[in-house]
């Protein structure tokens, strides 16, 4: 499945909720400026990833790696932004905030073999 990343300011973080005996979830809201309009985007962490939010304070710049999850229940359709990695945002990184595009489309992070040439190495000049 494809993964995405976005950077913004941690607007609100919530406590972990035990949804069932075997499932826990934690939500947080990221503030992103989109063409001078503030957007508040809610993400979800699940299971052992709920603790990833602990080191971050509200107001700090965060880069969120996430994927899209969707399901149907009783004829209604739901979509979740399922976060799986959080990083302190470093100005100048790709997926920047707010000058560059808000969303960066990635396939799952590739494994890099140090012995293989990068795509730029096969240029004829």
UniProtKB/TrEMBL annotation:
InterPro entries per record: DUF3127
Organism domain of life: Bacteria
Residue ranges with Acidic residues bias: 98-110
Pfam families, sorted: DUF3127
Protein name per its UniProtKB record: DUF3127 domain-containing protein
Residues covered by region (Disordered): 89-125
């Amino acid at each position: 499945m494809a993964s995405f990343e976005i950077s913004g300011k941690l607007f609100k973080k919530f406590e972990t909720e035990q949804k069932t005996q075997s499932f826990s979830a934690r939500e947080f809201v990221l503030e992103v400026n989109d063409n001078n309009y503030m957007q508040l985007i809610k993400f979800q962490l699940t299971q052992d990833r709920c603790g990833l939010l602990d080191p971050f304070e509200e107001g700090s710049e965060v880069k969120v790696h996430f994927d899209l999850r969707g399901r149907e229940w009783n004829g209604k359709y739901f979509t979740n932004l399922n976060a799986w990695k959080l990083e302190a945002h470093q100005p100048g990184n790709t997926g920047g905030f707010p000058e560059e595009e808000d969303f960066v489309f990635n396939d799952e992070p590739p494994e890099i073999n140090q012995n293989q040439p990068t795509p730029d190495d096969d240029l004829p000049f």
